[in-house]
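Wed. Picked up where I left off yesterday with Putative major facilitator superfamily transporter. The coffee machine is broken again, so keeping this brief.
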Amino acid sequence: MIDAQNPRQHDGNQPQPNAGNPNILVDAEADDVPAAEPTRVTGRRALAYLGLCLVLIGLNLRTVFSSFSAVLPEVTSNAGLPGWAVVVLTTVPVTLLGVFAPLAPVLARRFGAERVLLGAMAVLTAGLLLRPAEIAGAGHLPALFAGTAACGAAIALCNVLLPGLVKRDFPHRLGLMGGLYTTAICASAALGAGFTYPVFSATGQWTSALWFWAAPAAVVLLLFLPVAVRQRHGQHTAVREGVNVWRSAVAWQVTIFMVLQAMMSFSVFAWLAPILRERGVDGGTAGLIVSVSIVLQMLGSLFAPALAARFRDQRVINSVVALMTGGGFALSIFGPLELVWVWTGLLGLGQGSLTAVALTMIMLRTRDGHTAAHLSGMMQGVGYGLGSTGTLLVGQLHQGTGSFTAAGLLFLAVGTLAAVFGYRAGRNRYIGG
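Structure written out below (tokens, as returned):
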């Protein structure tokens, strides 16, 4: 039983950190000395309020990507965006996920994870407000660039810090909170894909459709404000423990698997709706198809990690879900249009499973929390940084050929490479021997 005066007290069934438990969330502050203290709350209601805030933050971390793609033709036409600008706007936020990820633990040691998270939500809200603005004499392009960059930087910090806060503050409900957090992130992408075009249809303005997403971010910012400002933060230093993941062949195999996964994942967010619309699907239906595909990602992400952990190695499941993803994406581009729901459904199940098993490799290929944290940092920095080349290549190929057919061939190749590296990463080995 959990003591009412200590709502975080561990119960007897609390999962312990070990390589066989894929539900352990990686703590970005694992190297801090002294260890970062849990967020200060008083009682169960305050702890539940904190949990709600963390889940709601997760619910805002993917709308940036899917909302823009949902009205990309309207933005391009109305704002007069050149082709290179479209490519940059779909690539920059993903690139910044990798660029800013290493800064998150540094900022957390200096200011505290809660306050950095609050600052990131403030920057995200500001970026969402700035993104559709029009600057007198300069048009929409400067604001689109600045707002999109701000959103990418803010999301990078949240991506790194949120899992550690969930792990640190809810050790007694790790499975529940971890599931809610990951589901919220998938739901965020689905909401952006499904509701942006209807808002555009109702208002007739793409600017209103993009501004709409600043509202939930601002609400979460206000809800989290009293939690973050009352936190006390002591002095911390970083002490590196564990093996050097940058010198490990296993770590590089897992990281390249993550890179290839990210290339496909963020290309889905950025380009699937425009692909469907170019094939003749109307904007509302395209948004619904993408949204349903992302909901299927949630199903894949729920079941794939548990399935992967049941086997001695993960070579088969890694390869299968990689091929499902690459094949589903390619068929969404040039498969028969009457079967588009089948292709995007295959893509959704494959992509959700692929993302989940790639992240699960963090725990299955490491022996301790410190090594897992270093591998996670390596995967996010390199994975998102190089993973952004997927959206870049799709845009460049579309510009150069005038269609998305070449991009379909690209993702057949990327899916095959992901299967190869997933097979190698799935062997039953640990980083450091």
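Quick read: The radius of gyration is 21 Å.
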